[in-house]
């Protein structure tokens, strides 16, 4: 008998991808144990990312990710159909209900620290944190399980020569440039990197907290964080004045959520809630180092909100407008960073598996956008946030790392994601699937790195696991017609007009 101590599959990460994996496995008669490194289920959609980035072709979002999660949120609001803007507490409620539907046991605050937590014999993982497993799914944002198991991975940015991608590596020619900053070398600006055009590095695009703000009467005032230093926001003040921004309303009111007078924060401006440079040590860092990264991001985000509401360098009208917003007392009630402040940092990109197929820029564009083994379809522009600020000349600050040099993402064609991005190359670990840190280059990852797509890849990972358990074969030896039939049975869309 399979129990929580002896599951068929161990899933690392109660993210949307992990939950969808567990749900698919349950429908095939298998039991999952989910080890979640934080104190919450639902991943970043329960942790603050509640303005969903959906595909440009709406029909691409399908399967249980659509009908159970997004339509489930819609039902919570009494609407017929999916909801893509919602409250974090509702996302977590729906996520918990899906975990129950999946019959999965969840253990919270279970971090994987390294190879000692994952036992590998020959080409198979046999136990995770001492728990026997026949198959494992790494559905975490960090990819710690796959790394501990010895699965090859990368992080940062490949160079142009790695996969022949025009947008790969250091891209100073298409960077943002903003002038009239004197001096132009204050935090968080760094010296100009000594890199050549297209050269690789280990730098990661900016992370941030996807905050939720409230204008309700019971809103909480923005707290003054420990270590608050108003000088950190000098560049933001100059930018606000230059752009004529009148208050926080100008920045966030286009991101209204359902319902209850709440709003979503994101980067917003050239200087904003993103913190380029702070994320570089996160992907391959220890949990202690990651906690330091998180603490720096908390000080930045909370300090910025406090500064916008209180700093005397800003007009009183601006500060008064900002004070019409606050933190929602009914969200993130047990956050370690204070009630109303997100408990999860938005990890846009960490490790990426180097698997049986590496998704690159070429896979997002015709003529190589179709595949013989698709598990889902997707279309979303190549979205990389700024990787680094650096000084240029005596008054210019460069924001390098976006893939267009404008506020618009480079477009992609409608494309198919192949099953081979979900597991290692033949000869590697034979009983693992990785739906979130899937196999891709930095540029290739920049388009499909969205929560709805993670959910669909989680469904495919669950079906791959079920097939491997049923046949006893390595995941690399999967039967695609059988996989496609299983995916379609619960609504997955594997092709769309224009792709055949």
UniProtKB/TrEMBL annotation:
Lineage top rank: taxon: Bacteria
Signal sequence extent: none
EC supergroup of this enzyme: oxidoreductase
Xref: Gene3D superfamilies: FAD/NAD(P)-binding domain
Annotated keywords: 4Fe-4S, Iron, Iron-sulfur, Metal-binding, Oxidoreductase
Coiled coil: none
Listed Pfam families: FAD_oxidored (PF12831)
Enzyme Commission designation: 1.-.-.-
Molecular function GO labels: oxidoreductase activity
PANTHER family: COB--COM HETERODISULFIDE REDUCTASE IRON-SULFUR SUBUNIT A, FERREDOXIN:COB-COM HETERODISULFIDE REDUCTASE SUBUNIT A
Identification of the protein by name: FAD-dependent oxidoreductase
Lineage per the UniProt record: Bacteria, Bacillati, Actinomycetota, Actinomycetes, Micromonosporales
């Amino acid at each position: 008998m399979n129990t929580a101590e002896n599951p068929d599959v161990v899933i690392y990460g109660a993210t949307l991808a992990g939950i969808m994996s567990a749900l698919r496995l349950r429908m095939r008669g298998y039991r999952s144990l989910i080890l979640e490194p934080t104190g919450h289920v639902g991943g970043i959609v329960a942790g603050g990312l509640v303005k969903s980035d959906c595909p440009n072709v709406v029909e691409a979002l399908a399967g249980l990710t659509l009908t159970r999660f997004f339509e489930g949120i819609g039902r919570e609001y009494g609407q017929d159909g999916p909801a893509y803007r919602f409250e974090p507490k509702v996302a977590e409620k729906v996520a918990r209900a899906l975990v129950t539907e999946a019959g999965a046991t969840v253990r919270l605050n279970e971090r994987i620290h390294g190879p000692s937590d994952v036992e590998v014999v020959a080409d198979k993982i046999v136990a995770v944190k001492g728990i026997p497993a026949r198959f494992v799914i790494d559905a975490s944002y960090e990819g710690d399980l796959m790394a501990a198991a010895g699965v090859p991975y990368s992080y940062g940015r490949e160079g142009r020569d790695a996969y022949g991608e025009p947008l790969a590596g250091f891209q100073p020619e298409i960077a943002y440039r903003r002038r009239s900053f004197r001096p132009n070398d204050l935090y968080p600006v760094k010296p100009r990197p000594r890199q050549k055009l297209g050269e690789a590095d280990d730098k990661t695009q900016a992370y941030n907290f996807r905050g939720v703000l409230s204008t309700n009467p019971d809103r909480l005032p923005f707290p003054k964080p420990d270590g608050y230093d108003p000088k950190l926001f000098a560049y933001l003040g100059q930018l606000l004045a230059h752009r004529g921004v009148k208050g926080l309303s100008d920045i966030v009111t286009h991101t209204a959520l359902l319902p209850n007078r709440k709003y979503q924060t994101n980067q917003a401006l050239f200087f904003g809630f993103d913190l380029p440079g702070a994320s570089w040590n996160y992907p391959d860092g220890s949990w202690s180092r990651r906690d330091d990264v998180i603490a720096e991001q908390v000080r930045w985000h909370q300090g910025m909100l406090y500064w916008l509401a209180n700093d005397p360098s800003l007009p009183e009208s601006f500060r008064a407008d900002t004070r019409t917003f606050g933190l929602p007392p009914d969200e993130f009630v047990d956050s370690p960073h204070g009630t109303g402040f997100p408990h999860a940092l938005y990890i846009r990109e960490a490790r990426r598996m180097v698997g049986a197929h590496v998704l690159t820029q070429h896979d997002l564009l015709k003529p190589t956008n179709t595949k013989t083994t698709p598990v889902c379809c997707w279309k979303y522009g190549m979205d990389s946030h700024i990787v680094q600020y650096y000084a240029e000349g005596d008054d210019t600050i460069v924001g390098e790392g976006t893939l267009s040099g404008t506020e618009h993402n480079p477009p992609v064609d409608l494309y198919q994601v192949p099953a081979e991005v979900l597991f290692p190359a033949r000869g590697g670990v034979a009983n693992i699937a990785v739906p979130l840190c899937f196999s891709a280059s930095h540029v290739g990852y920049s388009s499909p790195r969205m929560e709805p797509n993670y959910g669909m890849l989680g469904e495919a990972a669950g079906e791959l696991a079920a097939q491997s358990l049923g046949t006893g074969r390595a995941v690399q030896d999967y039967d695609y017609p059988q996989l496609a039939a299983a995916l379609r049975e619960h609504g997955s869309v594997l092709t769309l007009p224009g792709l055949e």
